[in-house]
Every structure is written in structure tokens, then in C-alpha cells.
């Protein structure tokens, strides 16, 4: 394929953005334009670990999608240039398939050039004939598995660790510009330059601190429990996003995706979603002889050995997922919504006419914030926002004080070691916090700790300072816990736990998923665990709502099969409820709507509206929002309604002064949108919140 030499001005001209939302609801202007970017180490990491999100972004046809590959992915093959070239061709054909653009076997649907940017040249391909622009960029740095002289093994990690080191790229082009030479600063500059050129609003990256409980069988090859290339690519990407965010007026949404270790969490994609993801990967795999060999060694997903590849198509898990506990009403009934973008906290608030205003910038506590937050109200009505620093892992709070706001660190159950490599920093293994008020108004927070249990911390007095951390036990806990206060003032805490017998298939015999339950025996007292909680099998974080009669309902998502690739697995949103207010729990759960939901992944959002009915909102298969609500107070849930939209993370919601649900989401352009119930219970459509 003939390539031309071009400067960044051509790229800017090629990236013609349009709104990521309906023209009827999105305001005109630069800040409504979305641009979605993935930054990965290798030419299949996006397909394996970020799909179906990438596919959904392309399928909407409303925003440009770009992916940046740091390494050539040549591994230690005998002909590294030929192998890397085939991987590039495979990924181009897979992207054409996702965009539904016909393409010849040689990838003739793509244009190609050598793009000059930030003092270097990268390979740039753009898809011809797609509904919205699709771009692929290749830096072609050596793969971590390539140790053929003069290439240094683990080049990407070596560049990160030594700012004075330089490394040459592979030459897949054959022009006078190649190979290119990079040091650490060069890599960050090129990534930052590309983000600026495409005006990125949503950036998807890999896992910078993999869970050290997982992939224990691979520590000989991967002592950090994942590929060093994956981890280092995430570090470079995080640094580039921070650099870019500091230079632009636009807020940047950053999402981290787990990689190899998703094999040790249950499948969370339906059979239909799994088949679609597999078909896309098959197109790529036809050009990757190494993966073909590993794929052929087992017909089913197993969590060790080459069969691990079979697990990826039925899974997509975020490293630091956003939570549904980010909207709250103040003492006047006005709703406040909080979100982390560009590593900082932002707030939107309703005025007296229920019109959203904002954003109001809260900054950060001295370092970037992770995506997941939780909001609560002190006994005196002041709002507190709880989150986690992405650099140190410590839990932090932003609280109202004397008409202003302050940051405070709540520390960590572990020593905070900011100078330690992120995978070895135990504080970075904490989940986002959950919060609930004690009967006397003292707030209490809960996190999953690095050992897979629960740690908690509480206010020593209402509206006051905080206790130390206490360990509540538990094992194999996934994600963020959920907590709610009963009508009698007792907190109930829930967390889901999942594990598999090492080396076994995910099946009814070997796969395990359950809910762990703790409760206070009296208001304001210590917790006791409940060994008799009903056996249910979630594959998402949990959400809790309250019926009109005071009964709690626990909502979660699940599949009806452990292996969606081998059966017809459908996705359900389930509810398990107390049999009476403050009472015991029903022995069985039921599906909202009486059957499958509309697919997708992520935690349900739950609100109880003014008429006493619970409403649930989930992210659906297309990346939008679907809702189901009770037919009447204290009754079963009705069918699902697709509200559309294209969102990041999961929906959140609150109840306004009129008792109506107001759902809040983040758009791929970084803006917040809300969708408020009408008087008849239907929804009015997605509307931008505030001024930007």
C-alpha cells in the first residue's frame, strides 16, 4: 500500500466530528463534539479487552474513533516485520468489519500515510467509506517479548524506567523515515500530540495496576500479574492524558480496562454479544499465527494455559468503574450530580426551577482522582463526596464547610507507598468507596481491600472526624460494595464474590459467584455477617433500593449460563427482596420484567420515586440506557424501555422535588446529560446539563 507523507494539519482536516448525541438534544458548539480514542500496547488488546465498547462507539457513526498502538506486536517471531505487518492488516480488517465497510483481503478500504507529529513520524491509516471517521496509528516500538539483538527485551518498560534510554522502532514502511528513535519523553509527546490532534474527549486505556490476587499461575512469566507491555502502556497513556487535559479547555473522560485477568471473573456478555465479539476477533485472528495456535489448544475457556484466550470474548471488565451513587438531593430537595473528568471532580446542581447549572470545578486533592465516587449527606445536611486518588490509592473526601468546600484524606487500610510500582501498591487495589449513614447520622464508608475482603471507616461523631480503618472480613470480593440504611436505622452491607477452581472451566461445577451480607444488629452498632443469605449468582456490582413499605431490594445483573460461547446465554437484571421491612430475605430472586433485559454490562442504578415505585436503569447492549420500574409500589417490575443515548460508564439517578426520577449520564463528549420523568412516568429525552 502506497503511503504519503503528511503533517498533523491533514489529520485535523480528516477528523470531521459530529455530535455524539441527537441534534434535537445536543447543543451546537465545539464542546458538544465527541472524539473517542483507545491507547493500547498491542494490535489485539482493544478487540479482546475493550470490546464491545469499541464496536458500539463505531456503530453509532456519530463520532470519530481512533486507536493508537504503541508496539509493533512482533513478539519473538522469526520474521518480526512480516508478522507485525500481518497483525496490522488483521486489525484494519477487524475495524472495517466493526464499521460495516466492505474491504478487500489486502485492506484496500484504508488510506495510509506517514504522519509527522511531535517531532516523529507514525503510521496513520484511515477508513474510507465509514459513517464517521475511523483512524489507526502505529508507533511500531519493539514488543516486550522481542529480545533479538539489538532490540532490548521489554523495551516499553525500559523506556519508562530510564528517561535517558533510547530505542529504535521496527521499520514496517521501508521509507527513509524509518526506523524512528524514541526516549520516554518522545513517547509521551507523540501520544499527547495525537490526543490533541484528534481533540480527544474519551480515552480508553489498559490496567495500570492489575489485581495481585489474580493470574497467580502466570507469575513466572508475568510477576506483576499481567503483561509488562499492557501495564506500561497504561502508564504512558495516563501521563499523556494528564498532559493533554492540562492543555485543553475540554474535560477528558478516562476509562481503564482490565486485561488478561478478566478470565478470572465471570462472563458478563450474553451469547449474542459474545458471538459478535468473537466474529470480530476471528477476522483479526486470521492474520495472527501465534494466537491461532493458542486458540486451537482448547475448545472452551479455562483460566490457565493457552485456553485463557477463549475466555476473553465473553467478558469486558473495567479496572476502576464508575458508580451509580453519584447523584444526591440536598436539604432543599435540589439534586446535585458529581463526576470525575480530567482527574478532577466536577459538580452540577439544580436551581429552584429544576434547571441544571454547572459545571462547578472542585479540582482534586493533590493528585488525580479515579473514576468511582460516592456521595452522602452528613447529619446536618452537608454533602460529602468520597473518592480515591489514582496515584496513591488513598480514599479522600470533599465536604462542605462554612459555605465552601475542603478536601481531606481518609487514608488507606494499607501503608500508602506512592514511590512503589503501581502493581505493588496495595492501596491501588482498593475499590471505589460506598457510603451509608448510621442511625445517628454518622457516615460510614466501605471499600473492597487488596485481600479481597471489606474494610470500613466511620465518623466518630455526627458531622465529625473519622475513625481508623477496620477489617470486616470477606473473600474474593469483586468491585465496589453496596450499602443502605434500613428504616430502623441499621446499615446493611452487600458485596459480591466470585472465584473459580484454578485451571478449570467456568461451569456450574467449577464457577462460583455469590453475595456476602453484613448487617448491624442494632442502630450504630458493629456488624455481623449473615451466613444464611440466599444463594444468587451476580456478574455485576450490586445496587440497593427501598420499597414503599420499607423492604430493601438488592438488584444485580447475571447470565443464565457460565459459558456464553458454548450455550445460549441471556442477560438478566435480577431483584432479591426482604420479606418484610427490616426483616429476612426471600429465598429466591426474580428477573426484572419477567425475562431477559436488553443486554450490556455494569451496575444497575436504583431510585425510589415519589409514588413509592422503584425504578432501575442499566447500560444496555448498544451502550445506551434501558429502564424498568415497578408496576405499582411494592410490586414486580415491568418490561424494559430503551431510552437511547451513548454513555460512558453507567447511569446514575436521583429523585427531584416533584418525586420524579432524573437519570444522569456522561456522554462520550464529556458532557453530562439528564433524562427526567414526565408526570405519566415516561421520560422526556436526553438533555445537556449546565453550560458545558
From TrEMBL:
The keyword Signal applies. Residues 1-28 form the signal peptide. It comes from the Bacteria. Residues 373-689 form the PLL-like beta propeller domain. Keywords: Signal. Coiled coil: none annotated. It holds the Pfam family DUF8189. The keyword Transcription regulation does not apply. This is PLL-like beta propeller domain-containing protein.
